[in-house]
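User: Some background: our group keeps a shared notebook of sequences we're curious about, and every so often someone picks one and asks for a predicted structure to add to the entry. Today it's my turn. The entry only has the sequence so far, pasted here. Could you supply the structure so I can complete it?
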Amino acid sequence: MDEQKPRKTRERILEASRRLFNERGYAATSLAEIAADVGISQGNLTYHFPAKRDLVTGIEEETRERFRVRRAMRRSGPVADEYVAHLLFGMSLTLDVRFVFRDRAQFEDPGARTPDPEMAADFEELLALLERVEREGLFRRDLEIDLPVLARSLWIVSRYWMDHLRESEGLERITWEDQERGIQHHFAVLLPCLTAAGRRAFEAALLRASAPAERDRTGTDDPSR
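Assistant: Of course. Here's the predicted structure to add to the notebook entry:
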């Protein structure tokens, strides 16, 4: 019991930090505000996380763990369904921790940045899915497709979609509806490369995956609400 309570407090601190950093920005959120949101003293917070930067480290570690858990639990299925699941997971995750991408200059020394192994693994998973699409004959034969280039282009669209929204559209409060537009742009790059059967399979997979997500978001079985 004694070990469980600190762990729960730590989780509550990270959840509040993630939410407040997303809503207000890293620099604009103080340790005192996070402690008040959790309902603990600032001293209790700094017992778990001595510095504000440690909160970001904790959130990044949780995010990497989500990547690892998803890969470990992934079930084999039709390539279109696996591809869409990979895409939706990535777009949802970047929305959940959007401050990490938006505010990175506020908490990270550019000279200290190193490649993120989970990001690299995410790209390799995308490339492997496209290679499977090729093996299953779902790419058009009249096109010469460089799979690593296509994979990088698709990955860039998804990974940097929120940067586009901020820089080109001036959006600071990004919602899942905004992310859905990013998914449409991702598909605008992918679908022209596919056969007619491939396009139908991927469009159907996206529809199947989007319906439960819409119900979860609205709390209704009617996606129109």
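Suggested note for the entry: The chain has two domains: 1-50, 61-218. The chain has a mean pLDDT of 89.
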